[in-house]
Structure formats: C-alpha cells, structure tokens
Amino acid sequence: MRILNFGSLNIDFVYDVDHFVTAGETIASTALTRYPGGKGLNQSIALARAGADVAHAGQVGEDGRFLVDLLNADGVDTSLTRVSGTLRSGNAIIQRDRAGGNCIILYGGTNRVIDEGFVDEVLAGAESGEWLLLQNEISSLRHIVEEGRRRGMRIVLNPSPADAALDEVDLGKVDVFILNEVEAAMLTGFAGDADADELLHGLHARHPHATLILTLGEKGSVFLHGDELVRQDAFAVDVVDTTAAGDTFTGYLLASLAAGDGPEPAMRRAAAASAIAVTRPGAAVSIPEAAEVDAFLAQRGL
Predict the structure, then answer these.
(1) What are the chain's domains?
(2) In the chain, which residues have pLDDT < 50?
C-alpha cells in the first residue's frame, strides 16, 4: 500500500558553533554547510530507504529543484510535487553545537503557500486505506486532514513544530501520532516537567482510539495503542548531529507498520535507523539505507 507524504521541502543552512547564540550575543561559526532538508523530505527519504512505496506531495521554488532530484534518486514518486517559478523554497537556519545538538529557525517559503486547491488536486487520486503522513511545516494542514479522512485514508501526524496552527486541526481524525515530549506537552497542556507516562496517559485520554508513539531522545521511545504498551531503549552511539533523528525514526517506523510488522520490531528498527543517523552530519544525507540498519541490528544480535 502506498504512503503519501504531504510535507515540507527545505534547504538547510547549518552553522557549526561552540554554543547556541543567546539574546544580544554575536558569535562566529566555524563552518557553514548547505544540506537538503525539511521534515517532509527527510521522512520521505527515510520511508524510501526503509523499503516503502512512497509518493511526496509538496512545493519548492526554482532554487529547490535539487530537492526534487534527490527524492527521485531515492525512488520517491514526485509527480505530486510542484515547482513555483516565482517563490523561494522553504529553508532552515540551523545552529549545531559541539555536542551535536541543534537549534532551528524555519522560513516557510513555498511550504507555506500550499492552498486548498492544490490539496484537492493531490488527494483526488487517493484510495481508501492508503497512509497519509503529515507534519506541521506546510499550510492548509486542517484541510488536508479533513479531506484525507473523507477519502478513508489512514492519517499519521508528526505535529512538529508544535504551535498554535495545530489548534485549527481536528486531531480527532488522526490515526497515529508520532511526537516528542515537547510536542506531547503542547497537545496535552501539561507542564514541561511531566514524565513520559503522564504525557502518554494525557494523550490517550484525549485520543483513545489513536496509536501513540512518543520519542524520548536518549531515553528511547514508547508505543501505546489501547492496552498494548511497548518500550524501546535508545541505542548507545557517538552523537555527531541530531538534526534528522526524529524524521529517520518516523520514516522507518511507518514503513515497518505499513508493511505489517508488529510494534516491537517496528520500534526496534526505527530506533536503530535513528541511532545511525545521529552519527553523521546533516539531515537527509544522514539517513541510512535498509541494509545498514540490518547490519547494525545483526551486530547486536537482534
């Protein structure tokens, strides 16, 4: 079954710094690198490298044609991706510190001018039961969710970035949430010091029929659907850059679930893929191939 990812396409400008800049401070970066990125693009590449049949819908400017070429090179169907001749592609300014952590500023560009007409064009050929993967880096998210549900699609939401735009979306139509602690706290209204179990229970109370996957960084991840609870530890690796860790996890997890794998092997494979990704610089370029994930798990007897 095809997975349609209606998501962002960005150009990432990564500045290597000793520490994240603070208000009123000017610092020098030790390097500047341009990478392909955007949560949508990263997740489509992760899906494709995990072996899924994936189509990407989105929009770039002329400056972003290389992003479409990259998707094509990984076997992603880009027939639903549009190129604007007048607008600039979305981009991200990323600070990356010595520990591999990051801070990100997004400029929406073509990602934020996706209108309802384009959405209707993209979903016109959708089939009931198909997977629809979404993030919160594009416009018209409310309409995409409504139309996807009306067509009987299975909706997966990674609500990142977690902001007020999500208030407009009927989250009751979402089948699967893949989110981190910050996003879970925002959706539940809990304080930032709520633990994983509190966040999961809060999400479950609001969305009792949805599948919930909470990522916890170095503390691993948790899967909850009904009474089924699966905890997955993070694999210990030397971290270089965490930029695409969550997107890699999302792509590999959804590819496994769509292929019919149970939550335990799906979570384990997603954790392995994201562990490999953080050992490399960059976003899309850090996402491993399926054979690398297989070898990583085999080395650990899994």
Answers:
(1) 3-8+39-86+112-299 (3.40.1190.20)
(2) none
Q: pTM of this prediction?
A: 0.92
Cβ atoms 142, 169 nearer than 8 A: yes
Residue 73 amino acid letter: A
- What is the Cα–Cα distance from 258 to 253, expressed in whole angstroms? 9
CA distances from 78 to 6, 100, 117, 286 (A): 11, 31, 18, 21
Q: Is 69 a catalytic residue?
A: no
Residue 189 C-alpha from the chain's centroid: 22
> Are 12 and 37 contacting, i.e. CB atoms less than 8 angstroms apart?
yes
Among residues 74, 193, 247, 294, the one annotated as catalytic is 247
